[in-house]
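Sample entry (169 residues):
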Amino acid sequence: MLETKCCIYIPHFYLRINISIHQPCFQENPPIKVICNRNVIKPILAERLSHYTQLCERVMNLDKSIRFAGVISDRGRLVAGGMREGVKPLEKEKDDEVLFMELALRVRMRREFDRQLGPVNFAMASRRRAITMSFRLNNNILYVAAEPDADYCTLPRIILDLIKQLTQK
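Predicted structure, serialized as tokens:
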């Protein structure tokens, strides 16, 4: 029996586990036995998801000009949050998927310079129809979109303070 370590992606959570392969690896579909404890994983995922949902709600409550607050995984998937009720999206749902994946890629690319310049506190883009901001949450991203007339000088600092406040609990 061959035992090896690997990483498996479970939405919102990376898990290092041991895998036992009971037949030689040169076979086309070797049977793999995964050893993990689901009773440990589920509470961690639920707690993190609850934390992210609370963060998105608190961000939405900061300012009426905020259209969207969501946590995006490092794979570009929406984990928690979403559009403010009653607000019409500016893009199609399919475009959201591409936007989130592109955002995740940009955040990963910015990490290349963390050693030289320090980690990115937030990134912001001002567009004709919206202001967008992204904030790093460990391996995930808090993505916030606001109306173009939102106060882009103070809003990011308030959100950073909120993130700091909630992560210290």
